[in-house]
Structure formats: structure tokens, C-alpha cells
Amino acid sequence: MAETTAQPMGSLPSGLGICTTAPDIFYLPELVFGGLVWILVASTHVDPPNPLGWVMFVSIFCFVMTFLWLIIFAAGAHQNSSGWAAADFAYHSLAVLFYLSAGVDLAFITLMKKSGELRIYQIDISAVVFAFLATLLYFIHTILSSIRWKNF
What we know:
By secondary structure, the protein is mostly helical. It is built from four helices and no strands. The chain has one domain (37-151).
């Protein structure tokens, strides 16, 4: 039988190791909740376009970047260096700021459309919940990435 060894917090995983290490296990839930925000906002009438355009930008940007980050780590294209650990922390910090601002914008617009069509209102509420769940996941990933970067 093959032995499995846990990687220390100060090393960057590659391959299937991203499914077992503390900060990297959040990639898939971040993709799922970010994708749900994207789908739910896209399925409603975009009114007003500017704040919801920002929400769409954030959800698509973070979805694509998180997917690329996941592929880079899974393929082992990163070199086990503190530069990648710092970049991981920086990206997830930016994602937290983006999703927090998008979630607040989406919550405000949803509150303003409260007297509109009930189905659209319920979809918008779901999008707000998933936006804040994505923010929480990115925040936890940021904290764990900062610990890993510090221990590198």
C-alpha cells in the first residue's frame, strides 16, 4: 500500500495534494459559489446595469482566476517558492475585497427591488447569499494562505 504523508503548512502542493491541504481545499467551493453568483445574477433582469455589471465582472474574474490558479497548482507548474505563496495570498486578498464590494452592491440593489417581481427578488436574494458565502471562503483561504506564506 502506498503511504500518504501530509505536506507541511510551509510548502505548496501540486497534483492531487491540492485536495488535501488546508488552504487549497477551498478552490472547489470557491468555484461553485462564485459560479452560482454568476449564474443567478445573469438569470435576472439587469437593472441598474452599473452595480450589477460590477457583480458580474467580479464573479467572472474570480471564477476564471481561481480556475487558472487551481490548474497551475494541480499541474505543478509553480516552483515551490515563497513568491508563489505570496501571489496566492495577494490574489485571495484581492478576491475578498472584490467579492465583499460586489456582495454589498448586490444586497443594496436587491433591497431596492424588493417591491418588484417575487421570482426575480428570490433569485437576487440567493445571489446575495452565495456572494457572501464566496466572500467567506475567499477570506478563510486568505488567512490560511498568509499563514502558509509566513511559514514558508
